[in-house]
Amino acid sequence: MKLKLAVSLCAVLVLVSTSFAQSPISSSKHYRNSGLGNATGRQGSATLTGRVLLNKDGSANVELTTGIFDTTAVQPGAFAKVQFKPLAPSGDALFAQNFQPAATAGGYYGFTSALLHHLQQIQLQANIINIDKNRTDVVTVVDTAKLRPDLAVTKLDFPATAMINGPVNIVAVISELNHDAGATTSVVLQIDGNNVDTTNNVYVDAGGVVSVAFTHVFTSTGGHTIQVNLTNVVPGDYDTSNNSASGSISITDQNNLTVSGEFYDYSNNWSEGFDFKYTYLGGVIYDQTDTSFSVNAYQYVDARAYGYHLPQVQLPVSFSVTESMDGVVELTSKGSLSGYSNQGYTYVSGSIDSGFVYFYQWPGYTASYFERNAGDVTYFSAGYQCIWGMATGPDLGAGPTCQPQDYYSWNTSSQASYGTRIALGSAYQITLNFTGSDGVQYAGKGVATLNTQTTGYTYNYPNNNACPGNPYVQNQGSWVYTYCDTYSDTQTYTFVGIGPAVTP
Predict the structure, then answer these.
(1) Mean pLDDT within 123-129
(2) CATH number of 90's domain
């Protein structure tokens, strides 16, 4: 059978039942919390939470609350006094600063310090009033200075070419690069500069990786620009320069495209080396040199097989997806997609242990493909849920009965960190087989050699490349704080385009 990457949506699709092996979970529940966390303590009825986040420019935001962070609501009680004590590795206080917050500030107080470094411990003490009647509660906590979370769009995937009026899956991979704290964001899909879809409450754990799935239908031929943007990052982003990614897609009405797909393996090696010295009245209080190192890695697979078909395939459709490396089978998934057809239109999808499978057909055409998404979980946009049947209502988003929610689903049934991965070799192969109950089969196989590319950067704060020989000096009278912080980020990409099509 000659396979072509071609799908034409000639009429309104009829939604069929969808079966998800990994049930969608409300985004209000974080899939994992493995960061350093915030310091908490209490006395009487008063509670105190402290948070110290380091910014890219080397400054630190020190925050205290009697309630919760990152809300516009007024927190209970008020701070009568706040004391700030950075600690040496021995646990001794280097110095103390006292603050007198305004009584109208309520139960939140924050300030900026230029005298802190990564992983340093800080003692925060607060005198809290207006919670326990006629009493001042004194609460002390010790927090660790954390790098502010850095969310980045590290991958944006969609086919290079697709058919007009057909659904196009678009997947953005979001990574947290600093490994100290997680963050929540909204991910906005733009087509030709216009906002068309949004995924809200996307949480990425410290050092974590997640995927965000969109589906869009293009109604005009020619070139189009696809872009995703991270917005409203909470508790604020370390580096906003990596919060978007974009690319181009060609939309056609000609059915002459080939099997396509992509295998993508990514690893990010991030290290930090720092040298800090405190002196008081000319004497060295402590001098510390240290390094930290972290890695995150993931794989992404998108394989598509499209072709003519006569006659119309009969449901249910059984499928098998096999991934091999250097001729050795690494992953095999099998299953069945059930639904119904109406006047020749079929539209079904489902999830399996290692990814998501899709099968849809119209008079004259069949499309089948497989996605193994990167990271721990996949978040689903409003448009994706409506089109692929995860939302309430049978109208594919055309009317008010389609009510998408903030959902995610685990990418593996084992809930493995960073999702499914297979060992790299020199040649990757994927085979897709979809067979109707009438025995009609549609299949595609792609084999290609892997290619590796490495990029990276080294950043020295605060004096760029002169930092090791010209450290930053912060003079606070009797105290002198000298430091240099060096960040190294090396990213390795191994990738391959799948094709050309051959008969399995």
Answers:
(1) 97
(2) 2.60.40.4070
